[in-house]
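Sequence and structure are no longer studied apart. To make this concrete, we show below a single chain and its fold as tokens.
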Amino acid sequence: MTAYRITCVTKDDKKGKGYQTITAVGGTSWKKTVPEVISAIKAGHTFYVQIGAGEVGVIEYPKSNPTFIRTAPDGTKDDNLLSLTACA
């Protein structure tokens, strides 16, 4: 299976006041929509964000009927995905 490092995100700020929804993520020479990422995770692929010297995994949320992705809890209150730069 493939491990994808996420380095950028595409956001939709129109979902509601003060909320940002990630619609796609990307890395070096690839970009996937959130539904594509969820399908890839279910197929056994992994996605992660590099934070300093460590990696934080990306998970589907909620687990019962996933429609979003987020990073696994890593002891920080910062939003690891939303803090990434915008995809070109």
Summary: The two ends are 26 Å apart (CA to CA).
